[in-house]
Amino acid sequence: MDSGYTRAQKIWQHKFGEPAYLLQDYWGEGVPHMIWRVNVNDFVSEKSPMEARKAVAALSSTAFTCSSDYL
User: Fold this and answer.
1) In the chain, domain spans
2) pLDDT greater at residue 40 or residue 25
3) What is the reported pLDDT for 22?
4) How many Cα atoms are found within 13 Å in the side-chain-facing hemisphere of 58?
5) pTM more than 0.85
6) How far apart are CA 68 and CA 65, in angstroms?
7) What is the DSSP code (8-state) at residue 1?
């Protein structure tokens, strides 16, 4: 999971801790890009299928992209 948006980065840091990769000044001076390694199963494994869909939807409600290159 990755983000270049400052607001989303704060949310992800609160939710997942420090990013696995921090690309300083990626978007310009003082504007980093952050990448987290997150296992979605940690959020859905013990939930019913409906709860799992809601959990994944909640994760995707903040702007981010996900690529298998980062997982």
Assistant:
1) 2-59
2) 25
3) 95
4) 11
5) no
6) 10
7) -
Give every CB contact of residue 45 below 8 A, 6+ residues apart in sequence.
Answer: none
Per DSSP bridges, beta strands 2-3 and 21-23 are unpaired
CA dihedral 70, 12, 62, 67 (to 10 degrees): 0
In order, the DSSP letters of 4-70 are --HHHHHHHHHHH-S-SEEETTTTSTT--EEE----THHHHTTS-HHHHHHHHHHHTTSS-B--TTT
Q: Is the pLDDT of residue 64 over 60?
A: no
Q: Which residues pair with 7 in a beta bridge?
A: none
- Rg, C-alpha atoms of the chain: 13
8 A C-beta contact, residue 43 and residue 56: yes
pLDDT tens per residue across span 41-59: 776 666 677 776 777 777 6
